[in-house]
Amino acid sequence: MPDATPWFDGDVQEGIRQMPSFSFVLLYVENPPASAAFYADLLGRPAIETSPTFAMLPLSDGVMLGLWSRKTVEPAAVGPAGGGEVAFTADNAAAVRATFADWKRRGLNIIQEPVQMDFGYTFVAADPDGHRLRVFVPGAA
């Protein structure tokens, strides 16, 4: 018989494991305070924690963006930045275009201009560490 996971202290139905809540996206960066300033300006949300090796900002619905020093993360990170994406859902194609114009004006590295793809209308920029930031609206433009 499967046991209840030790990290969950709520009610567990017999035989069903409860997953912990998704709460963090962690990016490994060269300079957490500088990255925190970049994301605070970009997202319009202040960092709630900043140290030389780690910074944290709220994204939405209890999900936090953690910015951890690439030099101090344990275990050591081996993959380069840009191997994944942080995605932001927009309300419509006009909002995608407006965000694109704003981020381009701010000087973000645009690595994909706005385009209709099979999943929706989208563009991709990169943060100063090379992490991919996708903005999209699902479906047709």
Features:
single chain, Signal recognition particle alu RNA binding heterodimer, srp9/1, 2,3-Dihydroxybiphenyl 1,2-Dioxygenase, domain 1, 4-stranded mixed beta sheet
Q: Can you characterise this structure?
A:
The structure is a single chain. The chain is α/β, with parallel strands linked by helices and 141 residues long. It folds into two domains: 1-79, 2-Layer Sandwich (Signal recognition particle alu RNA binding heterodimer, srp9/1), CATH 3.30.720; 80-141, 2,3-Dihydroxybiphenyl 1,2-Dioxygenase, domain 1 (Roll), CATH 3.10.180. 18% of the residues lie in helices and 35% in strands. The strands form two sheets. The protein has a four-stranded mixed beta sheet, covered by helices on one side. A hairpin with a 2-residue loop joins strand 3 (54-60) and strand 4 (63-69). The protein is globular and about 40 Å long. Residues 1-8 have low confidence and may be disordered.
Unreliable parts: 1-8
Q: Tally the helices: what do you get?
A: 2
The appropriate CATH architecture of the largest domain is 2-Layer Sandwich
Q: What does the overall shape look like?
A: globular
Which CATH first-tier class of the largest domain would you pick? Alpha Beta
* Fraction of residues in β-strands: 35-45%
Strand arrangement within the widest β-sheet reads 1-4-3-2
Q: Tell me the domain tally.
A: 2
H/E series: EHEEEEHEEE
What is the CATH topology assignment of the largest domain? Signal recognition particle alu RNA binding heterodimer, srp9/1
Q: What's the gist of this structure?
A:
The chain has helices spanning 32-43, 93-106; strands at residues 24-29, 49-50, 54-60, 63-69, 85-89, 109-117, 120-126, 132-138.
